[in-house]
Write a structure and sequence with these properties.
Elements lengths: L1 E6 L2 E4 L4 E9 L5 E8 L6 E6 L6 E3 L7 E6 L4 E6 L8 E9 L15 E2 L3 E6 L1
Parallel strand pairs: 2-11
Antiparallel strand pairs: 1-3, 3-8, 4-5, 4-9, 5-6, 7-8, 9-10, 9-11
């Protein structure tokens, strides 16, 4: 079992920045690929970014490339999402997720591959 707790959300003006954190507890963090997803009101949950448990492999959805950066600190059992140049379209509840993998450079894009989820943190970007 892995417990995930997100933090760092809030209200920010367009063009601003936020850094989300996701603290993990429970099983060994190192064996989990991590992902960030988001869900805007009235929309389905969508993939944002993913990182392998080695930290060397990352992937982003096109709409956030060049603006968001996913990273992890395995010593602190924490994954981060640095969000720069935020846009009103980024407004959503952001969730982190953990998916078990035996490959150090593997990551997942599909929410079905993630077994554990946090409770979410609200990000609101005003225009």
């Amino acid at each position: 079992q892995v417990q995930l707790v997100e933090s760092g959300g809030g209200l920010v003006q367009a063009g601003g920045s936020l850094r989300l954190s996701c603290a993990a507890s429970g099983r060994t963090f190192n064996n989990y690929a991590m992902g960030w997803f988001r869900q805007a009101p009235g929309k389905e949950r969508e993939f944002v970014a993913a990182i392998s448990w080695s930290g060397y492999s990352t992937y982003y959805t096109n709409s956030v490339k060049g603006r968001f950066t996913i990273s992890r600190d395995n010593a602190k059992n924490t994954v981060y999402l640095q969000m720069n140049n935020l846009k009103p379209g980024d407004t959503a509840v952001y969730y982190c997720a953990a998916g078990l993998t035996y490959y150090s450079d593997a990551y997942y894009l599909d929410s079905a591959d993630y077994a554990y989820w946090g409770q979410g943190t609200q990000v609101t970007v005003s225009s």
